[in-house]
Amino acid sequence: MIPSVSEAEAANELMRLAKAIARHNRLYHAEDAPEISDAEYDALVRRNAELEAAFPHLVRADSPSRGVGHEVAASPLSKVRHEVRMMSLDNAFSDAEVEEFVARIRRFLALPGDAPIAFTAEDKIDGLSCSLRYEGGVLVRAATRGDGEVGEDVTANVAHIPDIPQKLRGQVPAVFEVRGEVYMAKDDFAALNVAQHEAGGKIFATPRNAAAGSLRQKDAGITAQRRLRFWAHGWGATSDLPEPGQFAMVKRMESWGLPVSPDLVLCRSVAEMLGHYRDIGRRRASLPYDIDGVVYKVDDLALQRRLGAVGKAPRWALAHKFPAEQAETTLEKIDIQVGRTGKLTPVGRLSPVLVGGVTVVNVTLHNRDEIARLGLREGDRIVVQRAGDVIPQVVENLTRDERRPAFEFPGHCPVCGSEAVAEEGEVDVRCTGGLVCKAQQFERLRHFVSRGALDIEGLGEKTIAEFMELGWLDKGPPDIFRLKLHRSDLIGRDGWQERSVDNLLAAIESKRSPDAARLLFGLGIRHVGAVTARDLMKRFHELPVLRSTAQDAARGDPAALGELTSIEGVGPAVVEALGDFFHEEHNRAVWDDLLQEVAPPRYEVQTLESAVSGKTVVFTGKLETISRDEAKAQAERLGAKAAGSVSAKTDLIVAGPGAGSKLKKAAELGIEVIDEAAWAEIVASVGQ
Ligand SMILES: NC(=O)c1ccc[n+]([C@@H]2O[C@H](COP(=O)([O-])OP(=O)(O)OC[C@H]3O[C@@H](n4cnc5c(N)ncnc54)[C@H](O)[C@@H]3O)[C@@H](O)[C@H]2O)c1
Ligand SMILES: [Zn+2]
């Protein structure tokens, strides 16, 4: 859901999206001259769908989720009304969305989980759709999709496409409309652009634009000079369907002399579908034509009929797109954020763009040097990259202009106004305001109460900001434990009632004996992350012992230094950071103050005795109630080892849907397999 958007804002945004999407549809479909990247366009469509899902009563009559393509009113070609509507396809970017697509079909058809259902999978070729009407096996009309209802007559144009037979071979129904894609191969596209350049003609952005621009010509003579190709993937109006399934029908069309995808397969499970997707994905770059995904279709035509269509797309088909790992967009604005340690981080605010399957609106610009390196300014067109789970990066500035100065990095903290400087040899610019800087205070408090640290429920960003404003947190984290002194002031403030206040205070009180490693991590000492904090506490058990050792080491005591660096994962950077921390008077004051308020028990690592203690567990497939990371953490707490792959050493496999090859291997090795519910029972049995 989109809780931060009010109804009025949503209505407004939906109106703006409808206008923008209609405009880009016209540029792309009618003029073959898009202004934004497909990834930016897809981000607009996703945003529209999200808002419509959250506010169903605001769906507009002219909603972009309803229409297909673009109407052909202004086209110089004559118009053709399609007897059977030409549709679009719903799309997916992740495995989970494909699983949900299949699950949705099962629910719709009320098919039990184990009833087999087959799907075809084939390339989603990036061209433009075309309908070819054959009567008595002879081509009588070819038409583009247009808005799905009315397209353009391109009969004369397709006469110049050798892949499109004027006459079909064999037993063809009396009326048969072939649906497929007109496309241009990569080589032909490159050659066309070279020729266009030499002749001073229009340069096409993609093979798809080139194919569309070449086919939709009033003068078919121009089409004749372009090398266009075609393949069939479906059908429209027909007097007869000679086969009962999608796969067999496509093969039948092939036998009539129509080219079809060489990568059409029949799949019997989601795993097979995803396998084919990955296989095609691997070969994508070496294919002679551009594809942008894989299309899955329910094979059984009787089931296709039962499923029908919703909106502008059939329920029985899905385009599983290859997420663009790079995409073009506009850098709207550069903001400066001040972190816990005073570091000024530039953040780029983007015009939303779909990269790697997710909508990206912010991108870190890292530091001053990075901005200079890319010559970035607000308003520039940039290329954003996101591969796998990596955070998005700017890889290129498309409007780079050496003569114009890049964004000027501020010399002062935007929050407290203190001077901001980079230390000798450092790229990071830091605010020198220290604890005077509200931004740093805020970030430290936020970190202190965060999930990995003290994990205080109900003390979110807004509340911290509110209490800071009231001056209740001036002394930093220890003040949190004195908030109870403000109980009566707080009750009755806007948004607070006795109950919510007492809940918050109870959550704080419950942390009076915190885990020492979490407390240490919560202090936000540089280089002391959650793991290092645990490693340190495993060795020293008590915070005062850690402190005295760190201070001794900072004074150069070799024994203390040796003790610290003998801990795995603790190197000179950590030792120095600890030394620097305790060197600061105000840090020592906060530390002492804090240890007056809380009393962490002696730190001991404990694992629980359980049915899986000492065993090696592998999690595979999709877990529904917990994340993979949480499952692994549970296993560790139960004294088990979580491994990534199945081997002879594996004792137990916890499998969710889509587990695939690991299950096969488990069966071969005779390893016990349980489902997520059984795993949850094991966890519950030790009270975790
Ligand atoms: N950049 C822009 O401004 C802009 C504007 C509009 C649309 N677009 C692009 O066009 C897409 C939307 O266009 P759309 O509605 O035509 O959807 P689509 O192109 O994502 O999918 C539907 C089409 O896929 C084609 N297709 C290819 N292979 C197929 C196969 N094997 N089986 C069935 N169909 C197959 C069909 O022609 C079908 O009409 C967007 O996702 C975007 O990428 C871009
Ligand atoms: Zn500051």
Automatic annotation (TrEMBL):
Cofactor entry: Mg(2+); Mn(2+)
UniProt GO MF annotations: ligase activity
Reaction catalysis annotation: NAD(+) + (deoxyribonucleotide)n-3'-hydroxyl + 5'-phospho-(deoxyribonucleotide)m = (deoxyribonucleotide)n+m + AMP + beta-nicotinamide D-nucleotide
Q: InterPro entries, alphabetically? A: BRCT_dom, BRCT_dom_sf, DisA/LigA_HHH, DNA_ligase, DNA_ligase_AS, DNA_ligase_CS, DNAligase_adenylation, DNAligase_N
Provide the top EC class.
Answer: ligase
Q: Which residues bind Zn(2+)?
A: C413, C416, C437
Q: Does the keyword Membrane apply?
A: no
Q: Where does NAD(+) bind?
A: D38, A39, E40, Y41, D42, S88, L89, E122, R145, E181, K297, K321
Is Transit peptide found in the keyword set? no
Q: What is its EC number?
A: 6.5.1.2
Q: Which UniProt keywords apply?
A: DNA damage, DNA repair, DNA replication, Ligase, Magnesium, Manganese, Metal-binding, NAD, Zinc
Q: Which residues form the BRCT domain?
A: 607-676
- Active site, per annotation: K124 (n6-amp-lysine intermediate)
Quote the Gene3D superfamilies the UniProt record gives. 5' to 3' exonuclease, C-terminal subdomain, 6.20.10.30, BRCT domain, DNA ligase/mRNA capping enzyme, Helix hairpin bin, Nucleic acid-binding proteins
**Function field:** DNA ligase that catalyzes the formation of phosphodiester linkages between 5'-phosphoryl and 3'-hydroxyl groups in double-stranded DNA using NAD as a coenzyme and as the energy source for the reaction. It is essential for DNA replication and repair of damaged DNA.
PANTHER family according to UniProt: CHROMOSOME TRANSMISSION FIDELITY FACTOR 18, DNA LIGASE
- Could you say which protein family the record assigns here? Belongs to the NAD-dependent DNA ligase family. LigA subfamily.
Query: What's the protein called, per UniProt?
Result: DNA ligase
Origin species: Tsuneonella deserti
Q: Which gene encodes it?
A: ligA
